[in-house]
Amino acid sequence: MTSNWENRVFPIALSLCFGFMATYVILGYFGVIPSLEPGAVIGEAWRWCERVSSSIFREPVNALSNLGFMVAGLTMYWVLSKEETDLKNQFTGLTPISMLYAGAVIYLGPGSMLMHGTHTGWGQWADNLSMVMYILIPWLINVGEMGRWSIKKIFSVYAFIVIIDGIFRWTDGLGTGFGFNLFSISIGLWFISECLYRYWTPNFRWSSGFIGFIVCAVFGIFPWDIWENFNEVLEGLKNENVNSLTEYLEVLKRTEYWWIVTFWIPGLLAKEAPRYTRTYNPWFFAGMFTYLLAFSIWLTGVPDSPYCDPDRFFQAHGIWHVLSAVATWCFFKFLRTEKLKD
Questions:
Q1: pTM of full prediction above 0.70
Q2: Distance between alpha carbon 42 and the CA centroid of its chain, in Å?
Q3: What is the C-alpha R_g of the chain?
């Protein structure tokens, strides 16, 4: 039987969602939040194909399609609030981890809506923050279990990373200044850590980082591209007249793919085999398929794509949002399959 506080979690989450939408509409109506990105023009197609509107939502379809994330996260809270917690699975019932995951899924909606709806710099920042806050959770859960971290440590590391990345993004024009995209890299770290979670051995810990190159290739960055870039930097160091530390660092900045060293972070932290096992079919594979399908559609949602129609109701970027929301649900169902090993 659930307690009183557990019965209040879903209504609170639902109220916050309605409160956000009401606040957005009110501020939009009075002209407080809508803006325009530099170069954007009302009535013309912009970055994600949709024609820029003069309404309170600069990109109506691309903005409102983010309601899918809010619906997905609220559904998770609804399911979790109806269950008793189970010490054998942290995604059964309202546990700190399950609530963090559902909350992060909900925030993906407002974060992205603020970017597509307001066309402000802070809206872009909120969008990136929401993606980072979601994608960190799966791989931190994995390395946390294999590193035997406490829940407190997982939350502390999570908060630290989110805050540091948020500060860099806010103070450096939505970039980190050194070619580091935490969201994109965390996709690789999640898959690497998931492979470790499934196939952990002492030797695999140190070779697991090479899986990151497979993930890169899926998203169009191939090993030979990485190698060619490193060769260019080495040639620059040999051939250019580098006389100071500043000049040396300027040459090193051309190293676009230095972040591949992070592929070995999961192996470094995964000191022991996990005590739990998960069932990958169908939900993990369904989530992967849905996300990759969403990504392939996302690629077509730009003005120079032959598939772009700025006046179409079913915008490619909007479909990307809806399918990504479905993927978060699939991964939620996958994580609920976890159980103690025999």
A1: yes
A2: 29
A3: 22
